[in-house]
Please model this.
Amino acid sequence: MKITANGIDIYYGIEGEGPWITLSHSLACNLGMWDEQVKVLSRKYKVLRYDTRGHGQSSAPPGEYTLDQLADDVKALLDALRIRRTHWVGLSMGGMIGQVFALKYPGVFQSMVLADTTSRRAPDAAKLWGDRILVARERGMDPLVESTLARWFTEPYRKSHQDVVGRIADDIRATPVLGYIGCCQAIAKIDVTDRLKEIKCPTLVIVGEQDMGTPPAMARQIHENLPGSELQIIPSAAHLSNIEQAGVFTDAVLGFLDRVNARA
Model:
């Protein structure tokens, strides 16, 4: 389904019944990244997932995007669907959007899961993202596929799950160049570590043990700066831990939500 919100068309899906939970995907992916989680979460929750601005079937307008803008997209989508409160699960870019949203719109998130993400740009972020933007602008998405897959999955998984990795490769290739560039410009500027103490909702931080893009040190930094948060490191997983270790990831989310609900 599509809805116009915050000046763009946002593609989304809703499955299941129960309390709301919203899923936000990685850069160069789309809402299909969450297929395995939705199968399980939709048994107990009403699951909203959407394509971020510049990705999938959502609009990909030209120009530089910001994390505030991506958070505003989410707020406009929730408002359009009359969702006042929701749990949040965001991976990589989705985790960055979640942090900015929680700071900008306190009280909307009942809880957050921040997976394989960061709260502060690395010292070399400008060059790293600048190089990727240059490749995408001059040569398209195809040259970025293999290096991205190497960061996103461990080598054993890439060899043993070629069908899954192939689908993600297709998603990377299909990502609009303008959308990829716009989101790269947004996430390259993430810098909210010093404000995380302002976030009051229960939070679980998840990271793949072998995540090279947003390694466990970045997850620990979020955990140490967000009072009361929990940290779980998933063995035998790289950046897309929700795919590489889908069962472990989903169980971690459900266990966390059970603890949140019990306290509530």
Remarks:
- DSSP finds eleven helices and eight strands in the chain.
- The longest helix spans residues 246-263.
- The chain has a mean pLDDT of 97.
